């Protein structure tokens, strides 16, 4: 891609990211909504404040990632489209936020839970099985067609996904244990869903067919189910 086209794409994505940042910059209403969606029925003001910080820590990076990722991808010779860059932005934004969250705030009110945290405490077995099965199928599809460059990208996506999940597991506790647990679960499950969706988009290069579309539909369905609490969980 010519350099002027790269700059045009980067500026467009950067403006798009800035628009998202302005429109979706979270306040108390969004903080309460996230906590209630993930199982905290009556969040306290401190819980809401923590949820707002949690959301802002992620969304702050979107404009800069939208601006820089297309340029970096082109320089590295990696193919990508708008969907790929959008998913990569959300996933890398989550990674940056989890890295920053590893240092606890001095003023944080901690309530350590008695249960030992682990990946299966954040992502249910069905979610882990779904993730593993679809990612393995997508990787096999890339190997069959000898798309080694895309396979390397898929490995990198999986590495980032699992790094986000593991950082969510070991993140220092902040605030009420129920609210803290809800935000951890959200981090891990949204990251797994994003990683799943980002991986299956790699199976659609220049030529598409029924199998690649089945993988994409399965991947996005898995993303939707991982990133939302089911009715059984809500009950």
Mean pLDDT: 82
Q: For the report, how would you describe the main beta sheet? A: none
Computed CA radius of gyration, to the nearest angstrom: 18 Å
Shape: globular
**SS summary, helix count:** 11
Query: Percent helix among the residues?
Result: over 70%
Calculate the terminal CA-CA distance, rounded to whole Å.
Answer: 51 Å
Low-confidence stretches: 110-114
As a percent range, the share of strand residues is under 5%
Order of helix and strand elements from N to C terminus: HHHHHHHHHHH
Q: Pairing-aware structural class of the strands and helices?
A: mainly alpha
The strand count comes to: 0
Task: Summarize the helices and strands and which ones pair or pack.
Blueprint (H helix, E strand, L loop, with lengths): L2 H22 L3 H10 L7 H15 L2 H14 L6 H19 L18 H4 L2 H20 L3 H23 L6 H25 L8 H17 L4 H4 L1
Helix pairs in contact: 1-4, 2-3, 3-5, 4-5, 5-8, 5-9, 7-9, 7-10, 8-9, 9-10
Defining key terms:
mainly alpha; 235 residues; 11 helices; single chain; globular
